[in-house]
UniProtKB/TrEMBL annotation, chains A, B:
Pfam families: HxlR
Domain of life from the UniProt record: Archaea
HTH hxlR-type domain segment(s): 23-122
Transmembrane segments: none
Coiled-coil stretches: none
One of the record's GO molecular function terms: DNA binding
Protein name stated in the entry: Transcriptional regulator, HxlR family
Keyword Transcription regulation attached: yes
Keywords: DNA-binding, Transcription, Transcription regulation
Biased composition (Polar residues): 1-17
Segments of this protein annotated with the region Disordered: 1-20
Organism: Halopenitus persicus
Record-linked InterPro entries: HTH_HxlR, WH-like_DNA-bd_sf, WH_DNA-bd_sf
Length: 130, 130
DNA sequence: TATTTATACTGTCAACTCCGAAGTATTGGA
DNA sequence: TCCAATACTTCGGAGTTGACAGTATAAATA
């Protein structure tokens, strides 16, 4: 990181979009940039095969509609799997796919760090709410 | 990961409200959950002390108003520093703070992985645009 | 002198996306 | 008949984003 910035006349990058810049603007990151998405992956990772109600209970702050949307997106993206049992009352279980577990591994350090930061920030009194 | 959740019995360190769940819903993650935020941290990490124009050029997709907002948020959060030189034409340089670099370290694996995933997804033809 | 250029934004407004409260469907039990 | 339980939808308002235009400054240019 922190490459020499004087590369105004830098070596022929604009010719090809074969950017070595690791900043994907496309699919997965856009998905994960939505509210609660990363945390959602994280809880499913934590509590394993989880029913809708379990997840909802864990995320008191999130409305069911938003939760529903996020779950669907994550399933569509191949990060979560959804297993439906035809019972009454209905039962549905969400679980990480293999891809989802890969993601979880990358997410965990980030979330842990964030938790830490939030605590120290709260301690020093700096608050910035959304 | 998928730790056994019974790690609650560990060292009883935090007197804080219970949750050993590593899914912070507060400040930093909320900030990073906004569109382009993570990628923004990433480019500043990549190109070092960066001027507004440089960043804007890198993110063609982002409007200047949004970029401006994100930068401000990240500066307020202590992730980026902003150095203003009183020259004409004006010059402003953004750089990662120490905290920002910590974040960058956690972000890099995620973004790399995302890039990879997007490529294979594109290859298999599954698309989900925002 | 007047105009252009360069930079880093800010303002405005319309479009888009997100969010939460309340409602839906199903069937067994009181 | 009414209620409970589960996993969602629906709807209208709130919040976010983007396109475009404008601001400030002084040196360079016509």
């Amino acid at each position: 990181m922190a490459e020499t910035p004087d590369s105004a006349t830098e070596t022929a990058d604009s010719s090809s979009p074969g950017h070595d810049c690791l900043c994907p603007l496309g699919g997965v990151m856009d998905l994960l940039s939505r509210r609660y998405a990363m945390q959602l992956v994280c809880v499913v990772d934590a509590i394993g095969p989880a029913r809708y109600g379990d997840i909802e209970a864990t995320f008191e702050e999130v409305s069911s509609s938003t939760l529903s949307t996020r779950l669907e997106e994550l399933v569509d993206a191949g990060i979560l799997s959804r297993e439906q049992y035809d019972e009454i009352p209905p039962r549905v279980e969400y679980e990480l796919t293999e891809t989802g577990e890969e993601l979880g591994e990358r997410l965990e350090p980030l979330l842990r760090w964030a938790e830490e930061i939030d605590e120290t920030e709260l301690a020093t009194g700096q608050s910035k709410e959304r």
